[in-house]
Amino acid sequence: MTADVALAVADLRTHFFTRAGVVKAVDGVSFTLRGGEVLGLVGESGSGKSITGFSILGLVDDPGRIVGGSIRYRGRELVGLRAAELRAVRGREIAMVFQDPMMTLNPMLAIGRQMDLALAAHGGRPAAARRARSVEILGRLGIPEPARRLAAYPHELSGGMRQRVAIACALLNRPSVIIADEPTTALDVSIQAQILREMTDLVRDTGVAMIWISHDLAVVSSVAQRVAVMYAGRIVEDGPVTAVLRGPRHPYTRGLLDSLPAQGRPGEPLAQIPGTTPSLLTRPAGCPFHPRCGRATEPCRTAEPERRADGEHGFRCHNPLPEAAP
């Protein structure tokens, strides 16, 4: 893994200004991403992880907007760039793979036409070179007879094949950073495992940096070197994936791990975190997790916890879980 910082996010704040009030979807998120590294961004639905990814690419629509913080790609500030400047970065330097491939693929255009347009938008390659690149990347992602698939339409492909094509479209222009927003959630387990392996090989072979957004800690543990756990728009725990998953310090991370089906015994009910995620319109004072936390004390209800760290392992909790034994 190279030591260069591909992406640095500092105190990012993305809010939605609605009639009911201000929704602080992302509220002070910070992390760095290095070349050849995969960062897992995990949390329940509504935690802000997808909006973090959209913010990086400038894909937040009204009534949302970035109200504070910094997003630096290889030292270049992206917050505040004009639309045309962002389009030059989007797809060429930083690309995104969406959970639903039909958010990427146009049902009215053949696969080859869509890939050709993506390549033509970011360079002056001749048509033959664009076609060769499209065939090359489809083959790399395990699509049989890739040259013939260029003439297919999205509805003619299976769900797994459509997702592979969507990933291929993101890789066409050899971006330095890929944001993968739960790209395997809708796929069956065997296809999911194949795509995870292909993405892991891609990172190893090309040195691309990746943010893998997911609610599934088991998936994240298989692809990521570092993990950041989000709750109510903030990162509550982060660090090397092995340290965080084997010795979580925040009760929320512990709850997510205990909820995995593999943690239970056959016939026993699955563990679950009590309650529901808070509304971001009326986020509770203090630690936002305290209404669901069995370790909450009075400071948890009144004071926002500061980030503490054991080496590279950071967490925001007044009453952290004991440090794991070596």
Automatic annotation (TrEMBL):
Entry's Gene Ontology molecular function annotations: ATP binding
Keywords: ATP-binding, Cell membrane, Membrane, Nucleotide-binding, Transport
PROSITE patterns per record: ABC_TRANSPORTER_1, ABC_TRANSPORTER_2
Annotated stretches, region: Disordered: 304-326
Major subcellular site: membrane
Entries under PANTHER family matching the protein: DIPEPTIDE TRANSPORT ATP-BINDING PROTEIN DPPD (PTHR43297:SF2), OLIGOPEPTIDE TRANSPORT ATP-BINDING PROTEIN APPD (PTHR43297)
Protein name: Dipeptide transport ATP-binding protein DppD
Organism domain of life: Bacteria
Subcellular location: Cell inner membrane
InterPro entries: AAA+_ATPase (IPR003593), ABC_Ni/Peptide_Import (IPR050388), ABC_transporter-like_ATP-bd (IPR003439), ABC_transporter-like_CS (IPR017871), Oligopep_ABC_C (IPR013563), P-loop_NTPase (IPR027417)
Pfam family, one: ABC_tran
Protein family: Belongs to the ABC transporter superfamily.
Organism (species): Methylobacterium crusticola
Boundaries of every ABC transporter domain copy: 7-257
Topological relation to the membrane, as annotated: Peripheral membrane protein
Lineage, top ranks: Bacteria, Pseudomonadati, Pseudomonadota, Alphaproteobacteria, Hyphomicrobiales
Compositionally biased spans, kind Basic and acidic residues: 304-315
